[in-house]
Every structure is written in structure tokens, then in C-alpha cells.
Write a structure and sequence with these properties.
This protein is of the alpha/beta class. It contains 10 helices and 12 strands. Helix 5 packs across helix 8.
Length: 324
């Protein structure tokens, strides 16, 4: 099976899942980029990862011609998260492939000297505001030099990933993150002579609208899709998701819990069970992207436990494959 076959299968699955709901423009040229070029729309891409070349090597034992992969870069260090990330990025870039780069500051904020998750989030929010004011740009020099050294490659830059108000917003308007996104994109664009950079807005569920940086800088909408978002049966004896048991699937009733509003026994607003095969929050994000003319990249994806007995930890990954 080659990469084109995989792309065809992925598109068919997406079309089948979303028929009658919306058109998912995976792999099309972004509206912002289209304004600056007459290049024809790009075909769908298959990106493998993440982080190291393991998924790349695994895929090429049975397939061929994947389009790229996904790695991470840390703002605090001003460097790739570790040498394996750089090595994988180099492998891809030297072949003129697409490299999706998650530029992170929430996980290890510059200036964070320790503390609990609340303290770390507070520092991440402060760093976001500092970025909006033009700070920390020197930390991107090594990444920019890398993109300049590989002009044939295309770089999809996630300006932090799975962004949320908890880690990135200093007030209800979230101007901190919106301004940081636009400031970073403008800084990188102004220094890029290769013009091979595109920018990905990759929010968590439910906050894509309130945090959206605007059409001027966003090229792609990023989304994470794991088993619980697709409402596959996830069992209580499987691994925890964000520290809690999975709650979106009733194994006995074979139904999903989605964003449908009903009332509980006390008459208070509450989500109710409905037999529906997809997480409504994912569909809402895709609809939002369509309305803004932005293509979607599945920035992170993978399966979690979908059988009663959890498999060995090494057999599964919650972030195994990314595909655009």
C-alpha cells in the first residue's frame, strides 16, 4: 500500500463520517496563502509521527511516498525538544517534505522555576503576553535558520499546540494569545526568504472561536482526534485520559455523550446521551474552519484502549500518527 492509497482511504472515511454535515478541505491551499500565490491547490498529505522517525520507518516497511511528519521545538531552550526531533526534521526537510512543528511554551515556559500545574499555567500565560509584546523572538532563531536552510521543504508551524485559555489567555478576550500568534507569524514571515512557512491554529475543544487569532495570520486549523473524540468504545479498565476515566462512551448502551443539552433530575442543564458516532465538538471546529475558508490538519491522532483489557503500554500510543 502506498501513501496515495492511504490518503484515499482517509478521505473516504472523512467523507463518509461527515456526509451531509460539512466539507472537510483537507490538504487544500490555505485562503491566506492563496491570496499571495496562484499555485494550484495541494493534494491531501499524509504526515507521519510524531517526534521521531519510528513511525516513518514503520510505515515504509509496507508503504511508500509519505508526505512528511511532525516534530516539536521548545521556546524555552530555543531548540528542538531533543536531538531525535531535529534528526527527524532533517530527514524530512532534506527530501523536500512537509514538516509540522509544534512550537511549545506551555509545557516548559521560559522563566518557570517550579511549582504545581497552576503555577506553570500562570507562567505560560505570562509568556504568552510577553510574546504578544515582541519578547522571546530570539528563541526562534535556530528554527528559522533551519527552515531557511531547507527551502524545498514546507513547514506547518503550530504556535503552541492544543492551546487553551488556561495556559494562554490573560483575560476573557484572550487578546494575549491572539496577539502572540499574529506577532510570531509576522516576525517569522518578515525574516523568511524561503517563504516556506505556514501557521497552524491548534486549539482545544470548545475554545476555537474565542481564541481564534484571525484570518490574516492563520493558514490551517489544527485538531487532535483520538479514539474518545470519534466515540469508539473506550473501556474503564483502559488507560486514563487526562487523569480521568473515559466518560464519552456508554459501553452497555453503545451510545456517545455529546454536546446535546438536556436537563438532569433536578432540572439543571446537562449533556444527555445520544446515539451519534462523532464528538460534536470536533464537528463544530471543522464547521468553524470551513466558514473561515481554512483547511484542516489533523495535528495529532491515535487510538486508545478499545477493548476491555488494556494492552501492554508499549503497544499503544495516544499520539501515534498525524495526517493532514
Amino acid at each position: 500500500m502506498d501513501a496515495q492509497r492511504v490518503r484515499t482511504v482517509l478521505r473516504s472515511l472523512a467523507a463518509a463520517a461527515l456526509t451531509g454535515l460539512l466539507f472537510l478541505p483537507v490538504g487544500t491551499e490555505s485562503a491566506r496563502a492563496a491570496e499571495a500565490t496562484t499555485t494550484a491547490a495541494a493534494p491531501p498529505e499524509l504526515l507521519l509521527g510524531q517526534s521521531t522517525r519510528g513511525a516513518w520507518d514503520d510505515f515504509h516497511t509496507f508503504g511508500q511516498n509519505a508526505d512528511g511528519g511532525s516534530v516539536y521545538y521548545e521556546l524555552r531552550a530555543g531548540d528542538w525538544v531533543n536531538p531525535a526531533h531535529r534528526a527527524y526534521a532533517t530527514l524530512l526537510a532534506e527530501q523536500g517534505k512537509t514538516v509540522q512543528v509544534g512550537i511549545s511554551w506551555k509545557d516548559n515556559p521560559p522563566g518557570f522555576e517550579g511549582g504545581d500545574e497552576n503555577a506553570k499555567a500562570a507562567r505560560s500565560r505570562a509568556v504568552t503576553a510577553e510574546l504578544a509584546a515582541g519578547g522571546h523572538t530570539a528563541s526562534l532563531d535556530r528554527l528559522l535558520a533551519f527552515t531557511e536552510a531547507h527551502p524545498r521543504a514546507r513547514f506547518k508551524l503550530r504556535l503552541d499546540y492544543e492551546v487553551s485559555s488556561f495556559y494562554h489567555c490573560t483575560d476573557a478576550s484572550c487578546s494575549s494569545y491572539k496577539n502572540a500568534f499574529n506577532r510570531l507569524a509576522g516576525h517569522l514571515d518578515s525574516r523568511s526568504t524561503a517563504h516556506n512557512l505556514e501557521y497552524v491554529f491548534h486549539p482545544v475543544r470548545g475554545e476555537f472561536e474565542s481564541m481564534y487569532p484571525g484570518d490574516a495570520a492563520v493558514d490551517w486549523m489544527g485538531v487532535s482526534v483520538f479514539a474518545h473524540e470519534l466515540c469508539l468504545p473506550i473501556y474503564d479498565r483502559g488507560p486514563l485520559y487526562n487523569g480521568t476515566p473515559p466518560q464519552n462512551y456508554d459501553v452497555a448502551a453503545k451510545q456517545c455523550r455529546n454536546a446535546y443539552i438536556g436537563t438532569d433530575a433536578h432540572g439543571n442543564p446537562a449533556a444527555v446521551w445520544r446515539a451519534f458516532d462523532h464528538d460534536a465538538n470536533v464537528l463544530k471546529l471543522l464547521k468553524f474552519a470551513k466558514d473561515h475558508g481554512r483547511p484542516v490538519v489533523v495535528s495529532e491522532a491515535g487510538l486508545k484502549t478499545s477493548r476491555p483489557t488494556a494492552p501492554p503500554p508499549t503497544a499503544w500510543s495516544s499520539r501515534a500518527v498525524t495526517c493532514g
